[in-house]
Known about the structure:
The complex is a heterodimer.
Chain A: E1 7-18, E2 21-27, E3 30-32, E4 36-40, H1 47-55, E5 62-66, H2 73-76, E6 77-80, H3 92-97, H4 112-124, H5 140-153, E7 158-162, H6 170-187, E8 190-194, H7 198-204, E9 207-211, E10 217-220, H8 222-227, H9 230-235, E11 240-241, E12 246-247, E13 256-260, H10 263-276, E14 279-281, E15 287-291, E16 297-301, E17 304-308, H11 311-320
Helix pairs in contact in A: 4-5
Chain B: H1 7-21, H2 29-36, H3 44-79, H4 91-104, H5 118-142, H6 146-170, H7 173-184, H8 192-211, H9 213-219, H10 223-228, H11 233-255, H12 261-272, H13 278-300, H14 311-328
Helix pairs in contact in B: 1-3, 1-13, 3-8, 3-11, 3-12, 3-13, 4-5, 4-6, 4-7, 4-11, 5-6, 5-11, 8-11, 12-13, 12-14, 13-14
Amino acid sequence: MSDPQKxxxxxxxxxxxxGKQILFRDLNLTVGxxxxxxxxxxxxxxxxxxxxxxxxxxxxxxxxxxxxxxKQAHLHMAIVLTDRITSVNMTVAELVxxxxxxxxxxxxxxxxxxxxxxxxxxxxxxxGHLVDKRLFELSDGxxxxxxxxxxxxxDTPVILLDEPTAHLDLNNRxxxxxxxxxxxxxxxxxxxxxxxELDLALQMSDVIWLAGKEGNIVSGTPEDLVLNGxxxxxxxxxxxxxxxxxxxxxxxxGRTIRLTGDGYTYLWTRNALERRGFGVTTExxxxxxxxxxxxxxxxxxxxxxxxxDSVHDLISYLxxxx
Amino acid sequence: MNKRWIILPFLLFALFGLNLSxxxxxxxxxxxxxxxxxxxxxxxxxxxxxxxxxxxxxxxxILAGSALSIAGLLMQTLFRNALAGPDVLGLSxxxxxxxxxxxxxxxxxxxxxxxxSPWAVVAAASAGCGLVFILVLGISYRIxxxxxxxxxxxxxxxxxxxxxxxxxxxxxxxxxxxxxxWTFGSLGRLNWNEIQVLTWIxxxxxxxxxxxxxxxxxxxxxxxxARSLGVNISRSRLWVIxxxxxLTGAVTAFCGPIAFVGLAVPHLVKLLIRTHNHxxxxxxxxxxxxxxxxxxxxxxxxxxxxxxxxxxxxxALIGAPVVISIIMKAKRISx
Lengths: 322, 335
């Protein structure tokens, strides 16, 4: 259905920054139709600046942003920024209406078509029950949804979002990302998100742009960037193994425990043991933990067999034996 | 949309009638109506009082109230600051300085304009406003903090005022007194010729504001979003500065620096009409501002007394509580 070959947005030797301070240099990137792109990089590297430059609200230092339709920028790209909206007495309906402004004359009269597009945008982000609420009555998550509805109502091929999941709780973060992913797929838009959500980005995005230290941006499929070590290069992870997606623990207790079993119980038991500083192995060892049925743990310690009902009790016993 | 705005025209009409019928000379309401209808009255002097004194004053109230309220609304939207207003950010002081330069220039030994025409005074006052506006706007780009901006506006106003004081000090007693009276604000000094000038200025300023309504609406989301919606920010900003400056300049030139109306009216109107569309807000604040000014003028005349209080004292009595409530409810009342 989606045609990844179709390019919606392209940069040609684009350099962005402020005057002599250049943040990104000679970028040649593309945004394809139906793609969800996550743009990642450390804080302060210039992600917001690039978003603004792509959107045409900040002049690039050199190079250009091109899009195939010969439209003006505001008919081709909608944005969701981190800027706070100060007019908190505005209703959600009024906010979403602003999405139609590029199409209205000075009398700002909505046509039937405009109203239909606004209603559809509100339905797409599931905020129909909020339309009459004022912005100060909304939670952060609801406000972000309203901002996204406004961008959708602008009805542009590309949507650029700057940290749309900042300040949101886990549920809202997942919801926003899934929503954007769905919109990209269903409406064949190109969606670019500047974000710090590493785990979500790896699982949801079609393409990741990684901001490097030398003002470059590496673009690729998330899995490739993980496997070829680009992520490690750029983020310089400290104690986090991206290939397994886990934090590395040091077995500082100097004791190794043999753990046998399978399934989720095995994974979480192992997690607990490693977090507390035990080494975990499947080889022969002094102490042996076996995971039984019904979430029971049996410990064989020098011929002595004990059974526990929770990870907590298991850990307490093992730590007592140190 | 609720229909509460219907109150506003009724209020304006009632206050207009009341304003015409009240004064130090008691004139029966029936006679006022017949005078307005162009019929002859029993007392000829009543005719003159109504047409050459009360009518000009009432019309000045309407024009000045409307003009200042538009200026206040535009500034609050442009700065996205609930406390912005022509007098708060030093625009009125800029106009005062320009006007005093014209009237008291002989003190400096230079004759700027020997007998200034109303248009020249308006032009000078508007230029004074525009200069202060551009200064404040320039500073607002470097300082994003609202409180700092207001303090800087106050400082600019204080600077302009102190320059005026220096001029006053150098002037003769007669000019000084005239200028002091001017600073109290007065709505009853305008002749028909000057009212005509003020009317044209209001028409021009309001037209510019109307044509900028789309940009003004988009500004509610901030500069970046407005740009992303295709609004030409720099051009719209210039139009808004022009409109605000001529409106404030003209009113200040003719009536003196009138405080608080420009600040308070947009808030009062927004409590009544909950919309973010300037095509509705602009006419609403015009009517609301005119009504408030008529009311202030009625109160200033101290019904039944021969004294007339300075109009600025009355506008402050109404305006100050509004400002206090804005600060107290800072989260709820926004631009």
